[in-house]
Amino acid sequence: MPDREEAGGRPAAILIAGPTASGKSALAVRLAQRHGGVVINTDSMQVYADLRRLTARPDPDEEARVPHRLYGHVDGAVNYSVGHFSRDAAALLRSLDGRLPVFVGGTGLYFRALEQGFSELPPVPKAVRAQVRDEAAGRPTQALHADLARHDPAGAARLRPSDRMRVMRALEIFLATGRPIASFYGDPVPGPLAGWDLQKIFLAPDRDVLRARIDARFRTMIAGGALDEVARLRLRKLDPMLPVMRAHGVPGLIAHLDGTIDLEAAIVRGQADTRAYAKRQFTWFRHQMGTDWRWMDPEVAVAEL
Q1: What is the predicted pLDDT for the residue at 8?
Q2: At what angle do helices 108-116 and 263-288 cross, to 10 degrees?
Q3: Alpha-carbon distance 50 to 198, whole Å?
Q4: For the chain, is the Cβ count within 10 Å smaller at the N or the C terminus?
Q5: What is the CATH number of domain 7-119+189-205+283-304?
Q6: Is CATH 1.10.20.140 correct for 126-184?
Q7: Where are the domains of the chain?
Q8: 6 band by pLDDT with thresholds 50, 70 and 90
Q9: pLDDT tens digit string along 58-76?
Q10: Is 1.10.287.890 the CATH classification of the domain at 208-280?
Q11: What is the distance between the alpha carbons of residues 278 and 204, in angstroms, rounded to a whole number?
């Protein structure tokens, strides 16, 4: 696989990250068209087939302009992990026949896994998972985080007290193995882009502009059929802890469909959740990724790249 800059100064791969609604997909298509490349999804929600509109997957017109891969290829009943993504990306890279891979998305762990690899976590028996879910039912996430802190202080310190899914995952690992989750992070599987010459771009729009775009886009999603997507997902009665069931907008829209809140309240909740996520994306990339990422305003990136 490529491990240096290719002929003509072209990198071996391009990585485009940034907060949601920052214009990443449009830039990825532009660069892939210019270089004869392939756009590869690096967003943990856009892998799911169930939520095309609510996760802002590329539309058919965009997909027709250049090849798109790893979009909508996973059923919502699957708990798709960073390990799944890394293995899928590695297999895809072996099939590109020299075409430039353009990875684009907002999931920092996916980008880190591409270069630095990921750590395999042990499987959790179904009985253990069911026990943790039963004990967690009706309890606030902060209380679960406090439980984790008693068993695994280092693991709890790495997680936001409001991150219910990851807190429960760490509890499952401890209950199943008797070991803190960090003890499994020692020997990561190598990343598929380790040693490659990479062009890495983080799109950083003005915060006020981004918030306005997030709010407007969420309403556009609803007008375009996102509520119908969630209605179909609700009928499947999937485990509420699955990633697809926790996608931004899904809990509020399900609450609306259940008759608990009105549609406007569900929209406002989805907008707020998405804005909060965008803020975390900025923070995560600033503190967790290397200094070799070029932070750019989206309009500057379009003009210069």
Answers
A1: 53
A2: 30
A3: 32
A4: N
A5: 3.40.50.300
A6: yes
A7: 7-119+189-205+283-304, 126-184, 208-280
A8: low
A9: 988 889 999 999 999 999 9
A10: yes
A11: 10
